[in-house]
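So, can you check what follows?
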Amino acid sequence: MVNDQVDRFFEVLADPTRRRVVQLLGEGPRRAGHLAEATGSSSPAMSRHLRILLAAGLITDERVPDDARVRIFRLRPEPVVAVQAWLDQVQAHWQEQLGAFKKHVEQRESS
């Protein structure tokens, strides 16, 4: 399950515009128009990117009470936490491997 979430995260973020959208939403909630302007995308292109990010569960949207046409997009922390946990596991593995290699080299040098 977690690996599927991590795979989907990287698949969706293979696109540089979507990476920029996630970066912008990491700074705070934004409207689609602001995201399109900040990324240099057209409104239809931004709409497609946002649909992909929503479907992947990386972002959420909410309607503004006074105007149902306006949506505010927010980054969801859960997928980022899952990727961070995966990266921590990878790092722990490599730390262990490097530690074992260092110990091996030190033992050979002392022989």
In short: Strands lie at 30-31, 59-64, 67-75. The first helix runs from residue 2 to 12. The CA atoms of residues 16 and 106 lie 44 Å apart. Helices lie at 2-12, 16-27, 32-39, 43-55, 77-110.
